[in-house]
Amino acid sequence: MSVVVVAAVLMTTVLVAGRSADAQFDVDCATPTQTFDASNMPADLNLTPADVILFTGGTFTGPVNGGGATICVDTAATFSPSLINGQVQLFVRGTAVLPQLAADSGALLDNEGTVTFLAPPNINGLATVINRSTGVIAVGGANVSLGPGLVLTNDGVIDVAGSLNLNGGTVTNNATITVGGPLNISA
Questions:
Q1: Residue 103: which of 50, 145, 158 has the closest Cα?
Q2: Model's pTM, two decimal places?
């Protein structure tokens, strides 16, 4: 049996009024330090906080050492890294297929496209997820546990294959979250 949470349902003890205006593809990705497409796709990425990477086409499949960088995935691109180490700010208008990862404090996912987590992500510290109205997030795995450092705003569709445990944090749902197993909420 699936649990479907629809429209403006507060999922933890804290309600966020409005959406974070701090992250936006058009602003954060406007001046990339490097741009890649199918013709010049790198084998790997070793990044620093000053790096703003823009993928305009093709598929990236190498490892990423994030280093606090910004990674932008435009509509014709697919970001499917073999692993991600460190903190990144990820903006998706195209497709992202993410391996098992532990999001470091300061991590950001701003999604307008399609993001698939092959395994449940771990949140280590403060992390922000913004799923915009055109965004679709699918989370694989049997059990997803998200801790008090998560700030999630959902205006699109989130589909969790297994159970979902929300242990504090802030979740504002303005659209649809579907959970394939039990939904557990604790403050």
A1: 145
A2: 0.89
- Let me know if 55 is exposed, middle or buried by CB neighbors in 10 A (0-12, 13-18, 19+): buried
Distance, CA of 102 to CA of 114 (rounded, Å):
20
Q: Are 87 and 105 in contact (CB under 8 A)?
A: yes
| Contact call for residues 38 and 56 (beta carbons, < 8 A) | no
Q: For 120-131, give one letter per residue: b (16+ CB within 10 A) or e.
A: bbebeebbbbbb
Report the C-alpha gap between 82 and 86 in whole angstroms.
14
Token digits for 87? 């903190």
pLDDT band at 59 (very low <50, low <70, confident <90, very high): very high
